[in-house]
Design brief:
Elements lengths: L1 H24 L12 H10 L2 H17 L3 H23 L5 H17 L6 H21 L7 H26 L2 H24 L1
Helix pairs in contact: 1-8, 2-7, 3-4, 3-5, 3-7, 3-8, 4-6, 4-7, 5-6, 5-8
Length: 201
Amino acid sequence: MKLQSDYRFLGFLGAIAFTVLLPTIAQAHPGHIEGAGGWVAGFSHPLNGWDHILAMVAVGLWAAQLGGPAVWTMPLVFVAVMAGSAAIGAMTGPLPWVEQGIILSDLILGGLVLAATRLPIRRGLLIVAILAGFHGYAHGAEMPQMASAFSYGTGFVMATALLHGIGLGLAFMLKNPMMVRLAGGAIGVGGGYMLLQGMIG
């Protein structure tokens, strides 16, 4: 029991540290690794920006909170919709409101986790699908011109699945529901900071 209590305390400290330090590292994605091939560029794209990382981890956290079929359907729907919207983004190019939508997804998903919101699975999947559209569109619109679409897409799908897995793993590791909610709060703080940064330039 003492060991379990120690883990929870460490998780609590980690959540606080993450919340405090997040504003110093939160940023929009700076771009792809220079000279990277299709798969590497795709895999690195979600990992190069906290706007993507926070939302994708939050999906895993929320799926773990909901439990049951949501544990696998929520990440699956996110990845599927993201891949489809990436194809649209690759064909149409960048749009000015997509980045704002991505940051909004951090706020929404972080808030849902913080509040431990329990919705019917279909409503939860609809929310996740809508938000995944912004992330996928950005991936597609920012695909390097010389990259293979298949390799690039495989890369960002794998990175996204990894981030969902991190969110699920974090929730199961923390065990204490309040620690999971605090992690969601940290994600919301990061989204709020990025939104503020975008507003003030």
